[in-house]
Amino acid sequence: MSSVNFENTAVAFQHKNNGQLKRSFWLFKLIASPSLVKLGGALTNLAVGLGIPIGWAIKKNIFSQFCGGVNISESKKAAHHLAKSGIGSILDYSVEGKENEKDFDFTADEIKRTIDAAENNNDIPFSVFKVTGICRFSLLEKVNAKQALSTNEEVEWERAAGRVFSICEHAFKKNVALFVDAEDSWIQDAIDELAENMMVQFNQKNFIVYNTIQLYRHDRLAYLKAMHARLLEKGAKTAVKLVRGAYMEKERKRASEMGYVDPIQTTKENTDRDFNLAVDYCLDHIEDIAICCGSHNEESSAMLVEKMNARGIASNDKRIYFAQLFGMSDHISYNLSHANYNVAKYLPYGPIKEVMPYLLRRAQENTSVKGQTGRELSLIQREIQRRKKA
After folding, report:
1. Distances (CA, A) of 113 to 108, 110, 225
2. Which domains does the chain have, with CATH numbers?
């Protein structure tokens, strides 16, 4: 049985030369300052808005840290580099904020191209998409609230659902596993329904479509169990990506302003408890549930390793994956892979200008996640010192 040492910085940063390591150090140092992140975001948006060509500077710094490239071709090179350390990639077309049918059609086609890139490619075990990338947000809100749709909206919704079906069918035909990402709670019911329908359709024999469960919501453990029961009744396999969640401040603010019950757990401990219970539930039903543990939390990763060992589940059992974001938590990803566990990195890509909202959000999240940036900095610093002594 394998054990994992997350303190091994030699393994964690084996893929970075000294120059790259120092650049990562200074980048995380900047990200550690909320005021600098805010100022940098404002200046970047201003420069982009004024047409000032700053793409080269962004690409060499924050873009290269958190993104695989500007297109699939560049990202495949990054994926191949990760694969040398036994780490898979999840090609993630990270263009956000589109609102028209032409853009939605383009995004759906691009997601299919990521599936084509993943077909028979061990470097890329998964593809992923957000439903808001192929459907208007306000339409999802209306569907989620079960409000009456106009005739035009009904046609629009049929087209959106058709895109979801077309993407999932493409993944099924190419035998590529596909994540449906979780989003805001006030559109998530509509997304869940789409994802479940696709699992019924395409998960009869294999784990193709994965729904994402955000355990910082207090109702999601119960939802996971209910979804599993529904899919079992229909002869379909359940596949899930378990995460804590990414929209806490926005969720709490909206619940407070609109006067409904806050969907977020009251404490971090409750989130951790439900995350652990969700992992337990999936392992207890591993015969018909595949799980991806999408976590930057060392304790969660160590816990899953221990539970796999206790149940006699092989470290490389294809029903169980660990996943982290590209450019973050390399001490988790590389050390897990080194111990022969299945690991994949979310590899965002897209034109620099189009991916800026994603990058700025990533920087802001790093400043707000307690201890995240400090942990990255201390590990990088330790590796720099180790190399100096070597």
Report:
1. 9, 5, 33
2. 66-354 (3.20.20.220)
| Sign of the torsion angle spanned by Cα atoms 350, 245, 328, 296 | negative
Render 106-165 in DSSP notation, one character per residue: HHHHHHHHHHHHHTT-TT--EEEE-GGGSS-HHHHHHHHTTPPPPHHHHHHHHHHHHHHH
Task: Identify each DSSP E strand in the chain by its residue range.
Answer: 88-93, 126-129, 177-180, 209-214, 238-243, 289-294, 320-325, 343-349
Looking at every residue in the chain, the average pLDDT score rounds to 91
Question: Looking at the chain, how many residues does it have?
Answer: 390
Residues 6+ apart with CB under 8 A from 226: none
At position 359, the amino acid (one-letter code) is L
- Tell me which DSSP letter residue 290 carries: E
Which one is predicted more confidently, 362 or 48?
362
> What is the distance between the alpha carbons of residues 31 and 21, in angstroms, rounded to a whole number?
15
Q: Whole-prediction pTM value?
A: 0.93
